[in-house]
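S.,

Sequence below, as promised.
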Amino acid sequence: MTATRSTLSPSRAKAKRQAAERRAETAARRSSQKTRSQRCILRVVERVATTRQVDWNAILSTERGCRKISGARGLAMALCAALDVPHFLIARAFSRSWASVYSAEVRCSALYHQDPAFRQEWDSHIKACSEEAAS
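The prediction came back faster than expected:
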């Protein structure tokens, strides 16, 4: 009896290896986009929390750059709500109804509770900004 072993041709093996590398690169890129988007949101959070002023252009540009994150708009809205910015201003800024403002805040809350690393970073930024604003 002879044992047979199936082997791939060199060109087929190379193609499979390249496909695996592309998949790994895509996964890494998606991961870095999320991290970059989260950092962008945190910068807006920090700016608003320290100045106690809402820069709608910064928030809107952050939202446009962060569509991959569920609730990115909600994060900005929830921040503004926490800073006692009236909801109608938030709704007007995003051209949204009251219902969608509430929905965005719910999505924000879900992201906050699902991602422990982001929650920790968010909390530490808010705490630092609040202390800086208080002094």
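The helical segments are 10-51, 56-65, 72-82, 87-93, 98-114, 116-134.

Coffee later?
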